Amino acid sequence: MRQSPQRRISLVAKDARHILHPWADLTSLGRQNSLVISEADGIRVTDSQGKTYLDGIGGMWCITVGYRHRDLIAAMRAQAETMVYFTPFGNVTSEPASQLASLLSELSPGDLNRVHFTTCGSTAVESAVRIAHYYFSCRGQRQKRHVLAQTNAYHGSTYLAASLSGKAVDRTHFHYEGGWVHHLESPAFDPDNSTVSAAERLDHLIAGMERAIARIGPEQIACFVAEPILASGGVLIPPPGYHQAALDLCRQHDILYISDEVVSAFGRLGHFFASETRFGIVPDLLVTAKGITSGYQPLGAVLLSDRIADALVEAADPAKPVLSNGFTYSGHPVACATAIANIAVMQREKICEHVRDVGPYFLERLRGLRNWSIVAAVRGDHLMACVECHVPGETGPTPRNQALARAVDAYCARSGLLVRPYENLCILSPALIIVKEEIDQIVAILDDALARAERDLWAGAF
Length: 462
Ligand code: PMP
Known about the structure:
Blueprint: H1 5-18, E1 37-41, E2 44-47, E3 52-55, H2 58-61, H3 70-82, H4 95-107, E4 112-118, H5 121-138, E5 146-150, H6 159-164, E6 181-184, H7 198-216, E7 221-226, H8 242-252, E8 256-260, H9 274-279, E9 285-288, E10 300-305, H10 306-315, H11 333-348, H12 351-367, E11 375-381, E12 384-389, H13 399-414, E13 417-418, E14 420-422, E15 425-428, H14 436-458
Parallel strand pairs: 3-13, 5-6, 5-7, 7-8, 8-9
Antiparallel strand pairs: 1-2, 2-3, 4-10, 9-10, 11-12, 12-15, 14-15
Helix pairs in contact: 3-11, 4-11, 7-8, 12-14, 13-14
The chain binds 4'-deoxy-4'-aminopyridoxal-5'-phosphate (PMP).
Residues 120-122, 125, 154-156, 227, 231-232, 260, 262-263, 289 line the site of 4'-deoxy-4'-aminopyridoxal-5'-phosphate (PMP).
């Protein structure tokens, strides 16, 4: 709904005065001129001035079946009217939580048949690590508490999840858990820009992991936390065979493998879960969130293999048998009902099949943008992609490269496309219902934005 100019100004002023946004740029705090998104439909959003944009980022990697889907809205309303909330603690359940857990175990890889619900991705990652610690502690291996993580990965914003996240820039000025979290080298492999083969890169990464395990001592390591593809780190794709080889190492040393599928599950890579179907592994614990409800409701989940769940029960300490982990809103009934409706829509509308059809087209069209000299790389997998910008000759997120990417983002927004500006990257993760004509529109807008930014660069703007 278009808002009157006075109302918009008042909203923006209240925002500037009172909101400290997530990931806020503090240099503009109090002066931020926030975009007010007031409507959303399909793959488009509309701002308070009536301007409509293609949503190139799917909300935040999470909108999958599109905005304003009737079935999801009906499910939310029906559940809110029937039973909006009751505690999930102990032996109390709700119909949606119980139904959803059973559905997830059918859809998920291998024997991941037990679900511990949480509220979002960060709380799911935290819970998975706590479960890994609890598991080893119950088995009398309390010293097995160290965690292996990946440089450049992102696992969330709560303290432990942020400690696991591997971007130095996000860690400055905080106090991180340094003693027992270890970051392995980023597993990125870009065949277009690599001087070594995929096999050499894989050997190098696995040798590095082996060395880290030997250095820390396998008897001290509880788990390895990995994103199948490092999403927020810049859509970084490991060489083929990486996850399988890492899992083999974990199995060899009794280290639990936690796959963070917060972004990659629920169709973004063309399957409900990417681990098994896309990467050939069944992890011990799998974490998901975002697309589980298509972003309509906050929800996270940790899926546990029967092996781990049974071992937890077997090893439970009779004196202290309670797994003290969970949140007031773990598996909120309205969120679980939404997730059930979302899965039904995905199956009925054959969303995964659709992604497998349009995904390669999306990447092929984006790769055409590499002709611009300011494009350093185009990376992606199905509907998860990024365009990396650079001033030719300059690599990484330097201030100039970031300014250039911001210019590309601004030109895109002006032409009606929202991409996610992140350092020197334009990240793209549209809703999964996107069709080829809309992909063409996105690429045409990006192409024009890159042309303009390149012209600005040569004119000395950066
Ligand atoms: N894991 C991954 C891979 C993510 O991308 C994110 C969020 N972008 C999270 C965890 C944290 O999820 P949330 O923001 O829902 O806490």
